[in-house]
Amino acid sequence: MNYNILKQVHLYLKGGNNMLIAKSNEIKKRRLQKKLSKSKLSLNAGLPANAICRIESNKHSYIYPIRAKAIANALDCKVEDIFDKQ
């Protein structure tokens, strides 16, 4: 099967075109400025302890908007500061 088709099917099942793309370096920069560990930021955002680790290492490039909002709130910034629209 074509990789692009698989990717489109995966995106559809995960929430379609509403997904956001993490600005991994910006998230890391802001996390370090706040002196937060990856797991502490994850927990502050109400996410699993390894969530930020996976986002910063680009293992999860597409993020649900509700999770993006939680991360932005935990970093005291706007969603668009740390995520791009697809």
Task: Offer a quick outline of the entry.
This protein has 86 residues and is mainly alpha-helical.
Offer a few descriptive terms.
single chain; 86 residues; mainly alpha; 3-stranded antiparallel sheet; 6 helices; 57% helix; globular
What would the average pLDDT be, to the nearest integer?
A: 86
Strand content: 5-15%
The ordered string of helix (H) and strand (E) elements is: HEHHHEHHE
Anisotropy-based shape: globular
From the alpha-carbon coordinates, what is the Rg to the nearest angstrom?
A: 13 Å
Secondary structure tally, helices? 6
- Let me know the number of strands: 3
Going across the biggest sheet, name each strand in turn: 2-1-3
The span between the termini is 23 Å
| SSE-based structural type | mainly alpha
Biggest sheet layout: 3 strands, antiparallel
Which percent range fits the helix content?
55-70%
Which regions are unreliable across 5 or more consecutive residues at pLDDT < 50? none
Explain what the structure shows.
The chain has 86 residues and is mainly alpha-helical. It is built from six helices and three strands, in the order αβαααβααβ. It has helices at 3-14, 24-33, 38-44, 51-56, 65-74, 79-82; strands at 20-22, 62-63, 83-85. It has a three-stranded antiparallel β-sheet. It is globular. The mean pLDDT is 86.
Give the topology.
Layout (H helix, E strand, L loop, with lengths): L2 H12 L5 E3 L1 H10 L4 H7 L6 H6 L5 E2 L1 H10 L4 H4 E3 L1
